[in-house]
Write a structure and sequence with these properties.
The complex is a heterodimer of chains A (98) and B (15).
Chain A (H helix, E strand, L loop, with lengths): L7 E7 L7 E4 L10 E5 L4 H5 L7 E5 L2 E2 L5 H13 L5 E7 L3
Antiparallel strand pairs in A: 1-6, 2-3, 4-5, 4-6
Chain B lengths: L2 H4 L5 E3 L1
Chain lengths: 98, 15
């Protein structure tokens, strides 16, 4: 009681282009503790998906929490999730709230 | 605590 759950959304991004096409900033021990989407590149898989927005904060990728991960590690986890051949998509848990 | 104010900005990575 008294604690508001921020709204989070599960977004599935199909691998429809050779790149994911997002830029992220943030990570543990920075002013932005969870990775935030700062750019979505036209023609990338994320753009084609149509459900990701600049400003959204990425909480999880394929069910892996990004909390406590430094920038490089968060970026590596997202890059690996995009590259893995086991799936033809990535699942992001995102929120509009910081 | 002023700790939050001293945290550095993050780099940006294109994925």
């Amino acid at each position: 009681p008294g604690v508001l759950e921020p709204t989070s959304t599960l977004v599935r991004v199909a691998r429809t282009a050779s790149t994911l096409g997002i830029a992220i900033e943030g990570g543990a021990n920075t002013r932005q503790p969870l990775p935030r989407i700062v750019t979505i590149q036209k023609g990338g898989s994320a753009y084609n998906c149509g459900q990701l927005r600049v400003g959204q904060v990425i909480l999880e990728v394929n069910g892996i929490s990004l909390r406590g991960r430094e920038h490089q590690e968060a970026a590596r986890l997202i890059a690996e999730a995009f590259k893995t051949k086991e799936r033809d998509h990535i699942e992001f848990l995102v929120t509009e709230f910081n | 605590r002023e700790k939050r104010l001293t945290l550095p900005p993050s780099e940006i990575t294109l994925l």
